[in-house]
Amino acid sequence: MRKLKTSRQPEILDAALAIADERGLDSLSMRAVAQRVGVTPMALYGYFRNKDELLDGLVGRLLTELAPSDPGRTWEERLSAIAWATRRVAREHPSVFPLLLFRASVTSDGVGVVDLVYQALLDAGVPEADVPRIERLVSTFVIGFAISESNGRFSAASNESRVRRGGDAPAHRRLAGHLTADDWDAEFAADLADLMRIIRPV
């Protein structure tokens, strides 16, 4: 077993992410991460005191992938870039991604990404008192859509189920020709456009 150097926190998080991607979040443990990194479990505790801190680190690790590379774009473009990146990360890490919905961002990296959203909303003219609420509205929609898609709720199979479940329900009969979605990219883009319209006049 080797000792960890002070700069090994990213390596630990990458190992934790790889384990969760391969075997699911329930398989993630300090012992499994230590084995993957090649150290004793005790060596990890200088970086993460327990599994909860490790999960917080994973939230921050995922959030860093959402930051747009060009911070000089308009607020609409910045929010859209973060939203589309969120969808991509959900597809790449479907087992870990739901953590973003269940855990707050507490690491400096994670807080930095949320701050980018706050700044975009401020640049949009959202009153300061409303920024946290609007951020929760936007992030809950984007994360929820991404989780629904990556876990199969939005799929060809779900289209069939949506059509079948209506039976004799009157509104379902009326909407029968509109209950399926053929292009989830287009639907996501339309939903984002609706959100932008909500934000713009606030």
TrEMBL record:
Residues 6-66 form the HTH tetR-type domain. Keywords: DNA-binding, Transcription, Transcription regulation. The keyword Translocase does not apply. Residues 29-48 bind DNA. InterPro entries: Homeodomain-like_sf, HTH-type_TetR-like_transc_reg, HTH_TetR, Repressor_TetR_C, Tet_transcr_reg_TetR-rel_C_sf. It comes from the Bacteria. This is TetR/AcrR family transcriptional regulator.
